[in-house]
Amino acid sequence: MFKKILVANRGEIACRVFKTAKRMGIGTVAVYSDADRDALHVQMADEAVHIGPSASNQSYLVIDRIVAACKQTGADAVHPGYGFLSENRKFAEALAAEGIAFIGPGVKAIEAMGDKITSKLIAEKAGVSTVPGYTGVVDGVEHAVKISADIGYPVMLKASAGGGGKGMRVAWSEEECRDGFERATNEARSSFGDDRVFIEKFVEEPRHIEIQVIADSHGNTLYLGERECSIQRRHQKVIEEAPSPFLDEATRKAMGEQAVALAKAVDYQSAGTVEFIVDSKRNFYFLEMNTRLQVEHPVTELVTGLDLVELMIRVAAGEKLPLAQSDVKLTGWAMESRVYAEDPFRNFMPSIGRLTHYLPPKESKNVRVDTGVFEGGEVSMFYDPMIAKLITYGNTRNESIEHMVEALDAYYIRGVNHNISFLNALMVHPRFVEGRLTTNFIADEFPDGFSAENIVHRDPDVPVVVAAVINQNFRNRSAAMSGQARGLSYHAPATWRVIIGDREAEASVVPQSKGYSLVVDGKPYEVVTNWKRTDALFKATINQKPVCVQVDREGIYYDLFHRGAYFRALVVPPATAELNKYMIVKEPPDLSKFLLSPMPGLLVSLTVAAGDSVKAGEELAVVEAMKMENSLRALQDGVVKVTLAEAGASLTVDQPIIEFE
């Protein structure tokens, strides 16, 4: 067995690998860039080596620096995690040349499966079902248009060396094909240094279902069930689960056997994932093979009881798999939500900054948190904005969903924007609960983007009750303060008006030994809680039903977050509530004549100049953020008055780019 493992990665996946290595009694080494000097994975490791500047192409992607770190620390094996160098053939070769084990598959498998064109040809030869398409190299935009017309629209344009949704576009017409080919090749060149693109038929109403495989060097290859990964946004997974609510046992077995056949065809030895597109009739087609540990591997671990990282380490050390296919049993149901630093209310723009408060839900047999951040740490502009993976387990799918909703309620993050409201809205969406999923789910259900109107609260009295109780707690504390002037001491009233949005509710609050008794608009409530004013989470039972509400006090307001919804509550005496009706509402400034940057990023191009006339839908600028190109288009016809930024400029959120007449 290895003595010391270096993880050539960062964030939550580095922390995840360290946990297993430490449990196995193996020494650990972290590598870090300037931006990650104080990161959690650096703190967790036994040793840490600085490998360069913050930009990944000067640190985590520099093979020589990773190899040098191995030599410096005496690491005899490297786990690549996912992303960065995890599927880089040259990296595996460089390690082998120095006698350092690569905890992953062999070079042959990496090379064969890393190229989507080659992998599809190998899959076809191995008897794996494939999507109709053109597997040759597409020679320019005109060639792409001809191929697409031959296949028949819609088509998918995909970077051959791609992954993570980058270099991928769906085209429904010749015009979209031309534009999509340019975008896909640009993103592919930027992200992977390889602008080759291939084209295949786009399967409508598809599900994305993948098979986990594990193989050793002794001829044993197993499949460990499937993961449903259909909930995606811009081709990036948002929620994953195992097993799939759609597959029957016969389809699961057929997909598993084809995944094993493909793994054997390239002499695969490690953990890997074979991704399939599945149509409404359970026909399945090979999509790609990821020759690494997947982000969503925890859901498989929870339903199989296996530690995939440990199996990878043991296989790389030459050990035989400790189980046979007949030993693989799927028990219960697991869900994973990807918690990102992004603002779902503003088209999911990335958010960067310091985590001023970070309180993840308590881990248990039903809740697991894989994270790489901590309170006081930073979410950097240089890397993927993932904060954590939140995983829940239950005996049934509904149990797992309920655990997830409760855990999301208890996930308290401040300092950066995050997508927890969106995740919670997805979890309670009737169509999701019913398991009627496709990769178009988010586009279908949120066609105009995500907004507060998408969140329907089951019990609108809950925020009113919570706000009234919290307010009474603060008021009682004020009344108990010493040193008050005689005759002017404050006595907290018991009747209040709770104003949330357009609703004004009357609430009477009476403290009890274990909580409070309330009457809200004539309806009685019993609240049992030991909440303290310093607690960020209001945990209680309201009429014997457990609730967990996030609480922030902002001046005279209480900000409440529950089940994905946000409520700003003002709690005042009845007389003050009457006067409040006459308060002037401050109108936001009119920014309709400006094109604002929706996210922090790089202004790649500006396609208009002062005096130009533009039509609705015309591209005005392209902003790159997190290696994704975002086209900004005109919402209506107009004339450019002045451009306020130049190509190459670094933009902040809401920075004006163009002013219109």
Principal-axes shape call: globular
**Whole-number tally of structural domains:** 6
Q: How many DSSP-defined strands?
A: 39
User: Please, how many helices?
Assistant: 17
User: How large a portion of the residues is in β-strands, by DSSP E?
Assistant: 25-35%
Strand order of the largest sheet: 14-13-10-11-12-15-22-20
Low-pLDDT parts are none
The portion of residues assigned to helices is 25-40%
Q: Characterize the largest beta sheet: strand count, sense, and whether it forms a barrel.
A: 8 strands, antiparallel
In whole angstroms, how far apart are the ends? Answer: 70 Å
Let me know the average pLDDT.
93
The assigned structural class equals alpha+beta
Topology-level CATH name of the largest domain:
D-amino Acid Aminotransferase, Chain A, domain 1
CATH architecture of the largest domain, please? 2-Layer Sandwich
CATH homologous superfamily heading of the largest domain: ATP-grasp fold, B domain
| CATH secondary-structure class of the largest domain | Alpha Beta
Rg from Cα:
27 Å
Give structural attributes.
661 residues, alpha+beta, D-amino Acid Aminotransferase, Chain A, domain 1, Dna Ligase, domain 1, 8-stranded antiparallel beta barrel, 39 strands, globular
